């Protein structure tokens, strides 16, 4: 029984440590606004579709749809020296995108609450006509 308990405990600790490593650090909307004004090595990546991006996005955001990551390799390589803040509508697509870029050694942050929280807080949006 003691060996089973040890086995479960060790595997639980290993699993939680791997999950911790896999999670991208987050940044709040307020911190993002402050960093936009002060940090030039800071880039915002919107991974929604071009249509969603045109309907409203954060000022300075670069649109790289999450399902076009391989087609955007050149653009991404040019951004590698920057800290990238990634968002989508609700978080699912951004997490997929972040997982791929983490494996490639990018420095990433995830926008807390993504686009929906930004919009709900009535923070400024750029709308393309």
TrEMBL record:
SMART domains assigned: RHOD
Domain Rhodanese, first and last residues per copy: 38-127
Superkingdom: Bacteria
Pfam families assigned: Rhodanese
PROSITE patterns attached to this UniProt entry: RHODANESE_3
InterPro entries (UniProt xref): GlpE_sulfurtransferase, Rhodanese-like_dom, Rhodanese-like_dom_sf
UniProt name for this protein: Rhodanese domain-containing protein
């Amino acid at each position: 029984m003691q060996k089973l308990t040890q086995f479960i405990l060790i595997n639980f600790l290993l699993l939680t440590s791997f999950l911790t490593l896999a999670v991208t650090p987050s940044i709040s909307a307020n911190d993002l606004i402050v960093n936009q004004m002060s940090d030039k090595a800071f880039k915002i990546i919107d991974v929604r579709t071009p249509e969603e991006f045109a309907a409203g996005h954060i000022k300075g955001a670069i649109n790289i749809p999450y399902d076009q990551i391989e087609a955007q390799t050149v653009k991404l390589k040019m951004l590698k020296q920057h800290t990238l803040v990634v968002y989508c509508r609700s978080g699912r697509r951004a997490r997929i995108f972040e997982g791929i870029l983490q494996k490639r050694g990018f420095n990433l942050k995830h926008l807390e609450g993504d686009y929906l929280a930004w919009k709900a807080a009535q923070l400024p949006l750029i709308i393309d006509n």
